[in-house]
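Memo to structure team: turn this sequence into structure tokens by end of day. - J.P.
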Amino acid sequence: MSLSAKKTLKNHGIPGKLIVVEGVDGSGKSTQLRLLEKWLRYNGFEVFRTEWNSSNMVKSITSKGKKKENLTPTTFSLLHATDFADRFERNILPLLRAGYFVLADRYIYTAYARDVTRGCNPNWVRKVYDFAIKPDVAFYFRVPLDTAMDRILSGRPKLKFYEAGMDLNLSKDIYDSFRIFQSKIVDQYEEMSKREDFYIMDATKQIQEQQKVMRERVRKILPKKLKKKTVMEVP
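Reply from structure team:
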């Protein structure tokens, strides 16, 4: 089941715009979102960017649980749901009501993909996030798993326990576990892509080319009074 059509910003009379990027680690989504943020700010829009698992209230608790490596899939899921709920109530919804462009580096679809991969019931996970509002556009960065893995492994000394899905006993080798875990997450994203109306990005293209596509899509959701305005490119 997808997010209810009734739970849209327009139906709630909320003037802001919610833009989401999703994809596996190494897909390049965060880079593209930062470039989009820079472009929107350059054109005079009020922008707020939020990241997954970044609530000041919850992040430290989650980190402690991860270090002990004893979180169950349900506990793991609920911690991230609490983190999201805190950010949603404190930042995302108030700023959308104030007319901001809220840019979310991962949204509830990350929970749908990861928690279900960890064995949580799909319907249960969706009910946990039932309060969320459907984004104006959700970009899904589709990338070959080998490409994503090369990007990740070239940029960090070692993988983390939960990042690699080691809690699932997929493999004793952390790199094999990471590959298997990420492939299962990709399967979840692909299954969601049509149901959740993802705007699919070819994440193998050049950075500038991807950003051009994102900006063209975002232009379509600008407030009506601004659509005729000349939107400048970042120099």
